[in-house]
Each structure stands twice: as C-alpha cells, then as structure tokens.
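Researcher: Next entry in the queue.
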Amino acid sequence: MSAPRTGAPVLDRLRVGSAPDSWGVWFPEDEQQVHWRRFLDEVAEAGYEWIELGPYGYLPTDPDVLREETARRGLRVSAGTVFTSLHHGPAVWDATWAHVAQVAALARAMDATHLVVIPSFWRDDKTARELEPRELTVEQWRHQATGMERLARQVREEYGLDIVVHPHADTHIDTEENVTRLLDATDPDLVRLCLDTGHYAYCGGDSVKLIRTYGERIGYLHLKQVDPRILEDVHANGTPFGPAVRQGVMCEPPRGVPELPPVLHAAQELGVDLFAIVEQDMYPCPADQPFPIADRTRRFLRSCGA
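Model: Structure for this entry, 306 residues:
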C-alpha cells in the first residue's frame, strides 16, 4: 500500500471507491464481462472499500446475498445507477419510476446514500444512429428540470436517497452550457451533480472551474480521465461514445486529462464528505486487464493523498 507522496495534503473528505464499469461492465448480463464474484474479489484486492451497484442485475439483487458477499470482502455500497428520459415529460414517468424504485430499493437495503441518474443517449452508442435531436426544445428542458426535481423528491421521501445527476457524453446534459442550464433550472436542495471528470472533459468542460463555481451542487464524484489525442480524433470524426471507448478514449490515470490532483484538492476544499468513485470506461476488455489498472489507480490516488 503506497503512502501519500511527501508534502501531499491528506484528502480526508473523499471516500474513494470503484465500480463495475472499471471492470468493463456495462450490462446486467454479457458474455464479454467478468463474473460478478471476480469483480468483487478484485475490487477488494485492489484496496477499494466502496463500490456502486452497476447495471441492475449484474450484482445479486437479493439484498441478503449481496450483503453477505460484500461484507466478507470488506466492501460497502455507495450508490445505484439509473438511466432516465425525463425530458419526454409525464408520459414516461410511470415506466421511469418502476425502474428507479427497483434500483433504489436495493441501494437502500445496502445502506447506500445516493442514486446516480444518467440521462438517456440522443444517439446510439454503438451505431451512431440519431435516436432524437441533439438539442432539447424549451419544453423538453422544462420537462427535464421538473422531472429531476420530482424524481429527487420522491426518491428521498420513499427511500432516503439523494439523487446526483451525471453529465454524460452523447446525452443532453453534457457540456458546461447544458450542465449549468440544468443546475440553474433546478432546486439546489433536490438536484445535485455526480461530476464525472472524464465525461466532462470529453465534452469540453473544466472540472475544477465547475467545482469552484457550483461547489454546493457537487454531491458526488466519478474519477476518470480522457486521452486528449484520441479525443481529438473522436471529435474530428463524430465518433459515438461506444466506439470511442473501444478506441481507448478513457484512459488510466495519470495518463490523461483532467489532471486529478487539482480536482481532488478543489473537492476537498468544499469541506464536505464526497464519494470519489473511480470509473474507467473500457467495455469490452479482456478479463485480465481491469485488475492491474485498478491496483495502479488506487496507488496513484493514495500518492495524491486520497
């Protein structure tokens, strides 16, 4: 276990973890993904204490089973994850809530505190086919904002969890302009962000600037980097997110951008406890690839004081 480098501040407000995503897991079931037991074994061996649930159904959905499997490895759950299309308005609410309730119930049973909410993709992440226009209408923005507030309120009331909205490549909440538009249109007590440093950089955003400008709205972190050389090619060719990941656009820290120490220090300066969950999108990947990366990444973060 590596210690912080000499002079590195102790980032004691950050609770570092990892997620199935860092093991190449994008789907509940997929023959190209590692078995969930291997993920749990390796994430614990790499030195992480916190994990996310990942796609609902990847990890056991029976709370008793999952509690036993995580506890004997010294792991705890920070959050579940859901995808939503709330910009489509009240017509999608019932279907949205049915899925959210399922994930939230398991997250709550595991003593998690957050639900990561990712907007739906505007284009297919494999084929690049446009599923809907890239830009939302004024009415759709209104639905997005009111829907997120409604979701936050109901999740908090029924499950005691806080939602954190995850800006994501190839979704309508991506760039600085769209992220700040959502924040400015929603109640700060209800809607906060899961700032994914890699996705925000992918979409041209500055994570340190966002933390310092909207610090009270940062409720959760995903730690990730992008390879600027590959990103330039992705943007030049209009490559959709899935193929971009297969090109290696999301890379192992500290090989990419943004530099993580300034982000970690800015988050520490907020003076609140924050989960900082490592995610390195790399679906699909060989089964032996994730663990060495996860191990090196944990050592790197320790050297930064986290």
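Model: The chain has one domain: 14-303.
Researcher: Noted, moving on.
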